[in-house]
Amino acid sequence: MEALTKLIAYCVKRYNIPAETIASHKDHSAKTDCPGKNLYQYLQNGYIKTRVKQLVN
Q1: How far is CA 39 from the centre of its chain?
Q2: CB–CB of 12/54 below 8 Å?
Q3: Please, what sign has the CA dihedral across residues 12, 56, 53, 10?
Q4: Distance of CA 44 to the CA centre of its chain
Q5: How far is CA 28 from the centre of its chain?
Q6: For residue 53, what pLDDT is reported?
Q7: What is the dihedral angle through the alpha carbons of 41, 44, 50, 51, rounded to the nearest 10 degrees?
């Protein structure tokens, strides 16, 4: 999880992407289960966005 949030934070900084736009394929299409229930819960509960914001700031 730490590696994932660090990678996302890097991309947010590097490409000037608002952290609020972090989402998964599942958020935009009913045709996929990506990223799966084990990871998706961290997107749903805000953990990933919160951690990315902490790393960016």
Answers
A1: 10
A2: no
A3: positive
A4: 10
A5: 14
A6: 98
A7: 20
Apex 12 CA angle, 30 and 43, nearest 5: 40
DSSP 26: G
Q: Which of 39, 44, 34, 33 lies closest to 1, judged by CA? A: 39
**Residue 4 exposed, middle or buried by CB count within 10 Å (0-12, 13-18, 19+):** middle
For residue 34, give the amino acid letter.
C
Six-digit token pair at 15? 């490409």
pTM for this prediction: 0.86
For residue range 1-54, what is the model confidence (pLDDT) as tens digits?
999 999 999 999 999 999 999 999 888 888 887 788 899 999 999 999 999 999
User: Can you read off the two tokens belonging to residue 4?
Assistant: 């994932």
